[in-house]
Structure formats: C-alpha cells, structure tokens
C-alpha cells in the first residue's frame, strides 16, 4: 500500500452472453468459468461516526518511554505542536498486541500458491460490488482516466482488492496501531528501519489531523495504520490524496470519487506512463535451458527489451511492443507449474502500491473481471 502493506484474471457472468466461445483473449488471458453471484450484494451500511475498534487495547504509559519522549520532543519542535497537548494525547493511546502479531511475516516453509491466492481475492463479492462501484462512479473513473491516463479497470481493481470498495477499511484506531508499531515492533530483520517508518507515519497522522481539524483518536484504519477505501498510509494521504469530488476536503473513507482520483495520482507519481497504453502483461513461456532464470530477480522494475528476453528463451503468444522494456514475472503455484508473464512499467507502478507480484496481478485480474462483468471487452 503506497505503503508498507504487502499481497489476479477471472471471468464473469456476462461473459457467457457476450463471448462464451472465446477461451483466450489476444494477450493470453484464459477466461475461466463465471464467478458472478446470483444475488445482488447488500448495500453497505451508512457510516455514522467512527466505527467501533476491533480490539481491547492495553494501557501502557507511553509517555514514560524514553524513545517516545524523544519523539514527542522532536515533533513539537519540528512541527510546532504544543508539548503538553501531545502528552495528553499520548495518555489516551493504547498498546495493541494484535497489531504486533499481524505485522509479523508468515512462517517460513509454506509454498506460495498464486491460484489459491487469486481465488480468495478475485471472488464473486468483489466482482459484483465492483460492477456497482463502476456504474455508480462512471463519470469520475472516466475523468480520472482522461486526466491521469490510468484505465478505470486498474482503479476499480485496486479499490476492490484493498477494501472491497470501502466495505473493509479497518477498525483499529490509527494512532494506537502506529504508536505500538513505532515503538514496539516485533523482532525481525530491519526492525530499526520498520520502527523509523512507523514513527514517520505517526508524525504524518498528527499533521494530517491538525491540518484537517480532526481528532486523531477518531481515525480508523488497518492494523498497520492504513486509512480509507484505498488504504493510504498517512504520509501517502498527505502527499497524494486529492479532492476529486470538489467538496473542499479530502475524504478517502466516504468519497469513492476522492478515492478514485487519489489512487490515480499515486500511480502517476510512482511511474505510471499514459503513453505505454495497451495491456500491462503478456502470457509468456520459458525454455528449459533456464538462461532466463536471473531475469526473475530483476526487482520491481521493467529492465529488459523483448530481444533480450527472446535471446534468453522467453517467448509470448503474441508480439509485444519492441520499444518498451519488460520484467519477467513468475507466479508460483505450489506443486503446480509456475506461471510466467511479461510485464511493462505500468504493472510495476502497481507494485509500488504494494510490493508484491501477487498483489499487482490481483489488481489486473479483478479489474478485468469487473469490466467483463459489465459487458466490456
């Protein structure tokens, strides 16, 4: 997420009416059976103030911790906060052990399984709600695509993967989660760097709340402090969130239009290129000589020309634009064969939102599934 938080191409019911015979699209996307539910999703309940929190926080006197006192001194000096008011606020913050447990990495040894992951993410609930969200926000999606060059299906995919279009935005008090992780992050590689990251997000939360006249204790989000429909971390909210509905304020919790514009702005700031056009990914096959193997470790960027990939034994079912660069994406399937795709720089812009191939592919798949469910081709 834009952020710390790190995680695919399914069909839909209307596909049977529109193009049942087409088993594979021009880019190698295999269209699986319909996943559209028969019943319409129930409307999300109206929001009436901050939702209840998801945990019972433990009171600890953070103000007595040397590291916390030093942090508050720095924030007061750097940002002009009243030190006594910071003390009062910190006296109401709770330690959240569940945030510490949830932020721990998965235990080693469990193999990655793209197909299992994609079935969990690209599901009937997200597809059905995605169709409704697209229909309700069609004008805003078209305006964002015209202004930023990000297709509607990518924006719909991200908001669906993140929070099912605002249905699951998180019930942790942001300041509780961030303070806990900023000063009590679990033992892990790069623990010092992770705590520094969360301290920066805690400061950004205080700044955002002051700037917008919000009680910082009222902000709700994920266990890692991500906020609103797009799950922006507070620093990303400060940098990239936009008032896309013209209301005079940014509201990523209740305004789908603001969420659309803000996600598009984030992607452009992180490398999305309008001029690339066309598909983000192409189905690929690899040769058994494995000369291509080092190319799967290129990081979150597109580094290779089509000619270089072909020379290493990577082929695609359709020609790819030769003027672009690509990365070789490997999606592991446990005991089943790994899937390979060529991805351009716009795919890797999505990985800056969440640093995971699985995540970026889930965005592509969900967006495309919703488009097909609406009758688009």
Question: Can you describe this structure?
Answer:
- The chain is of the alpha+beta class and 377 residues long.
- It folds into 2 domains: 1-37 and 112-168 and 256-377, Lysozyme (Orthogonal Bundle), CATH 1.10.530.10; 58-106 and 169-255, Helicase, Ruva Protein, domain 3, CATH 1.10.8.350.
- Helix content is 43%, strand content 10%.
- It has 15 helices and 9 strands.
- The chain has helices at residues 13-19, 66-79, 83-90, 97-103, 114-121, 124-136, 138-148, 152-163, 174-183, 191-212, 234-240, 256-269, 306-311, 345-351, 357-373; strands spanning 58-59, 94-95, 172-173, 220-221, 281-286, 304-305, 314-316, 325-333, 336-343.
- It has a 5-stranded antiparallel β-sheet. A two-stranded antiparallel ribbon has the order 1-2. It has a two-stranded antiparallel sheet with strand order 3-4.
- β8 and β9 form a beta hairpin.
- It is globular.
- The protein starts with 12 loop residues before the first helix and ends with a helix.
Fraction in beta strands: 5-15%
Which segments are poorly predicted (pLDDT under 50) over 5 or more consecutive residues?
2-42
Total domain count: 2
- What is the distance, rounded to the nearest whole angstrom, between the alpha carbons of the first and last residues? 29 Å
Helix content, binned percent: 40-55%
Radius of gyration, in angstroms, nearest whole number: 22 Å
Number of strands: 9
Helix and strand element order: HEHHEHHHHHEHHEHHEEHEEEHH
CATH class of the largest domain: Mainly Alpha
Question: What strand order characterises the main sheet?
Answer: 6-8-9-5-7
Estimate the mean pLDDT confidence. Answer: 87
Enter the CATH topology name of the largest domain. Lysozyme
Largest sheet: 5 strands, antiparallel
């Amino acid at each position: 997420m834009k952020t710390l938080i790190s995680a695919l191409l399914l069909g839909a019911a209307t596909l049977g009416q529109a193009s049942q015979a087409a088993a594979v699209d021009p880019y190698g996307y295999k269209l699986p059976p319909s996943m559209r539910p028969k019943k319409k999703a129930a409307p999300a309940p109206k929001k009436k103030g901050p939702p209840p929190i998801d945990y019972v926080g433990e009171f600890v006197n953070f103000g007595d911790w040397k590291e916390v006192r030093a942090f508050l001194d720095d924030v007061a000096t750097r940002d002009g906060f009243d030190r006594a008011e910071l003390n009062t606020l910190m006296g109401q913050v709770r330690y959240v052990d569940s945030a510490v447990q949830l932020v721990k990495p998965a235990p080693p040894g469990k193999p990655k399984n793209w197909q299992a992951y994609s079935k969990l993410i690209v599901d009937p609930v997200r597809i059905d709600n995605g169709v409704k969200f697209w229909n309700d926000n069609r004008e805003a999606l078209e305006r964002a695509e015209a202004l930023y060059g990000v297709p509607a299906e990518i924006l719909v995919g991200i908001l669906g993967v993140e929070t099912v279009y605002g249905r699951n935005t998180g019930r942790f008090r942001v300041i509780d989660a961030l303070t806990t992780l900023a000063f009590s992050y679990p033992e892990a590689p790069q623990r010092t760097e992770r705590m520094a990251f969360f301290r920066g997000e805690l400061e950004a939360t205080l700044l955002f709340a002051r700037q917008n006249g919000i009680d910082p204790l009222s902000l709700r989000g994920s266990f890692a402090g991500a906020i609103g429909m797009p799950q922006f971390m507070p620093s990303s909210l400060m940098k990239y969130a936009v008032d896309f509905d013209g209301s005079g304020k940014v509201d990523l919790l209740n305004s789908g239009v603001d969420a659309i514009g803000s996600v598009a702005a984030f992607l452009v700031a992180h490398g999305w290129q309008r001029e690339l056009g066309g598909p983000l990914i192409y189905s690929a096959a690899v040769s058994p000589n494995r000369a291509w193997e080092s190319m799967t470790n290129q990081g979150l960027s597109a580094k290779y020309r089509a000619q270089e990939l072909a020379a290493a034994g990577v082929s695609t079912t359709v020609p790819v634009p030769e003027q672009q660069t690509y990365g070789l994406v490997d999606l592991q399937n446990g005991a089943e064969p790994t899937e390979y795709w060529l991805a351009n720089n716009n795919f890797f812009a999505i990985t800056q939102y969440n640093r995971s191939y699985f995540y970026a592919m889930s965005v592509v798949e969900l967006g495309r599934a919703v488009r097909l469910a609406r009758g688009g081709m």
